[in-house]
Amino acid sequence: MAGPQRIDVHLLPALVEPQQLARQTVVVIDVLRATTTIIHALAAGAASVAPCLELDEARRIAAGEPPGSTVLGGERGGLPILGFDVGNSPREYTPQRVGGKLIVFTTTNGTRALLCCKAARRVLIGAFVNFSAVCRVLRDETEVSLLCAGTNGHVTREDTLFAGAVVDKLTSSPAARWILNDQAEIATDAWRSRMKGSTGAGTLSQALRASCGGRNLIATGQEDDIELAAQIDKLDFVPELDLTSWRIVRQASGLSPA
Ligand code: MLT
User: Fold this and answer.
1) Which CATH architecture describes the domain 5-238?
2) Does residue 30's CB lie within 6 angstroms of at least one atom of ligand 1?
């Protein structure tokens, strides 16, 4: 890489103007659970994911597709939506249910964060389950933003930790010359102080359990999803949002198939 590279973390969508993301490669992060679920859905063979803001929009898109070709998925308040086929648990997105299908998907915070990225150059989907694949793609990018979805306008620990893990990894290469914003420094400090020197997944799942999203999942009896979200590098590809069709597709960036 000839010149310095820049990586900004935005701990909430409200902390960045959509125009600031122009020309950037943006990684959207909603570890618990939207981005973890999108990655699982595509790993299970879904054809693509259409992120939507509103329930009616999701129903309308599904109704415009050939019968049997779509799966309506998502949550409100962390719970499945009445009349939808699946909720927002990664474990619901099985090959039998989603193979070859278009997932029309709406969640409270994750799909909302994607909407801030219309001006971006590239939009990628990140979570701990594809951590190394994300880092591998970003190594060659010059202007990167890590956009945390947060929860209902509040910064969340789970998304901050993932952003910090990515910055930590990218900046640890001796040849790297990354310029960071202060939120990137804060996220990296959070990751290092919580995780450095630990044995990995167990500690991560403890940290996720104590996060905002983790507490919400425990309160609604969905805590198994926390363990799934803590499986670092379970999958080796980075989904990408096609900004023209507004569909998220599986991007073959990994070295080995998932
Ligand atoms: C969201 O987008 O708000 C989340 O993914 C919530 C959830 O855990 O279902």
Assistant:
1) Alpha-Beta Complex (3.90)
2) yes
> For residues 232 and 39, what is the distance between their CA atoms, to the nearest angstrom?
13
Q: Is 95 exposed, middle or buried (0-12, 13-18, 19+ CB in 10 A)?
A: exposed
Give tens-digit pLDDT for 107-120: 999 999 999 999 99
Global pTM value:
0.94
For ligand 1, mutation pick of 93, 103, 106, 107 (most atoms within 8 Å of CB): 107
Nearest residue by C-alpha to atom 8 in ligand 1: 33
Each residue's pLDDT tens digit, 29-77: 999 999 999 999 999 999 999 999 999 999 999 999 999 999 999 999 9
Is the C-beta atom of 109 inside 6 A of ligand 1? yes
Cα distances (Å, whole numbers) of residue 145 to 8, 142, 188: 5, 10, 14
Nearest to 201 by CA among 223, 158, 231, 229: 231
- Whether ligand 1 lies within 6 angstroms of the CB of 214 is answered as no
Q: Which residue has the tokens 């990515």?
A: 166
Nearest atom, ligand 1, residue 30 CA: 5
What does the domain layout of the chain look like in residue ranges? Answer: 5-238
- Using the predicted structure, report yes or no on whether residue 188 has a pLDDT greater than 90: yes
pLDDT higher than 70, residue 197: no
Determine if ligand 1 sits within 6 Å of the CB of residue 51. Answer: no
Decide: helix, strand or coil at residue 102: strand
Q: Residue 199: what pLDDT? A: 59
Take residue 41 and report the two structure tokens written for it: 């859905």
